[in-house]
Input
Amino acid sequence: MQSTVFPNKILPYFLVAPQIVLTVVFFFWPASQALYQSAMREDPFGLQSTFVGLANFTTILSDANYLHALRVTVVFSVATALLSMGIALLLATAADLVVRGKGFYRTMMIIPYAVAPAVAGMLWLFMFNPAMGTFAYILRRNGIAWDPLLNGDQAMALVVVAAAWKQISYNFLFFVAGLQAIPKSLLEAASIDGARGSRRFWTIVFPLLAPTTFFLLVVNTVYAFFDTFGIIHSVTGGGPAKATETLVYKVYNDGFVNLNLGSSAAQSVILMVIVIALTAFQFRFVERRVHYA
Amino acid sequence: MATIELKDVRKTYGTNIEAIKGVSLDIQDGEMIVLVGPSGCGKSTLLRMVAGLESITGGDVTIAGRRVNNLEPSERDIAMVFQNYALYPHMTVRQNLAYGLKNRNTPKDEIDRRITEAARALEIEQFLERKPRQLSGGQRQRVAMGRAIVRKPAAFLFDEPLSNLDAKLRVQMRVEIRRLQRSLETTSIYVTHDQMEAMTLADRLVVLNAGRIEQVGTPIELYEKPATTFVATFIGSPSMNLIKPTGGPNTNWPSDTATVGIRPEDLVIADTSSAGGFRVKVQVMAVELVGAESYVHGMTEDGGTIVFRVPGRSVIAIGETLELTALPDRFHLFDADGRRLSP
Output
């Protein structure tokens, strides 16, 4: 890294000021507020708050509802990450075989990424809404009792599919780039060595994609944890019976709907810790990913 | 152990771009054939067609008497050594060597036996548990060779295997490849753009130019009797001088001689006393000292350039004018189409 010495003593601070201001206003301030709130208990009328120490944390960590939300989040995240990465990998390997119109195909694949989460949720909701959804109608006509408004598993499946669908484009792009980075001569050597089709994929291509896969796994987990509020809010609203209430959704519900500010703040502090851990994990292992000579 | 036959092999890209324009070649069992030519002449394409990595547009490729045009690379019983080694980076050296055998369901003890054997022959035994990235270029090259050897294929195909190595290692590996190929007696096709490598490795050389074979023969045949001006200038370093036939007296060249070729080592500075024979006057432009000998670059009176060799350190000064001559049997005569006139 090249270090530049500014002759002016004040200018450098002006140059970094916008970034610092943004970070302070949008991260440090709310984060410190969350920390402060997480140690306080608000009275029901919002007139005064009392310091309760770690009571909020002990309450939520022994709360069955919170642990349920944690379980829901893990199931939701793992399912979303695996589904979207699996489909993206399938499409990327297929795109590798496309000869004509490769560019067009790839461009079309990227479009879902431009759709806002809430809109993506609405699209899937309309398709699978038991009252008016086309696919819901087809499912029911084929003897499947489709009703995500009553059946928690079906609701979960619906939000997972909607959340995964939106992330496929992103994963697809990375997998395409990863596939292109594999030297062609390796695949040729493998085909001379008698490996074709799925065998070649699992013994050569997939291991060489490992850095990409690992990176995407972290990114997708973070996405499923934190960026899927819009989808869940528009599709199920966390229901039925909290079957799709993830941690982030519970923060929103407890804080802004039920106005239990102390508990909500404590939950967001826990989420913050998870984000920091995931980011550190990513920097530690993904940024320094294996380079093949 | 196999012969390889190419019969009027053609490769066309799109509708009208011909990369290989009808190549026919018979390769004997155990022979080391080197395909040599400038970049873009189609030598790698031809090799890849034999390997099955490129489709064959026309003609037939036969390996061990079996037409392989429509067979997969793995079904052709060949092994290939790539320029960038193409080792599987996520596997250890042992796994790299075993991969091709495993895919063919070779019994485990047989795989182990062959790996031990190949590792000993290539002196890579101590690297077997390492990953390719922990090896140097030369060691990787050995592993790449090992991967070919363990398979015991009908033929080895080498695609410029030494071009990523430094000069010293290249010479060393060249000798080693030759030794291995001799001892294994496996039919081999070796592609290179380096004429030095070609000369030293080949049983027979195939000079390719623009998708066509210019000449096939032993290195000495090609060196002493190049069939065309292309081969004449391509084989030998520095390359052969081509000049217009402006011979003096006593040069009884055929009337259709359009070009005269003389190798740099066949030119000598003319003794002022000796009369007659071929003479050419050059002005010295540059002198290159390469160690045991020097190469003098000169310009003829009609503006052509001539290179000739002087043993030891040259005392020739730049700007000096010299008269050169050569023995009568040292000339290569070519007609207007660049074809050799007998002998």
The mean pLDDT of chain B is 87. The longest strand of chain B covers residues 17-27. The helical segments of chain B are 43-51, 93-103, 108-122, 137-150, 167-184, 195-201, 219-224, 229-234. The longest helix of chain B spans residues 167-184.
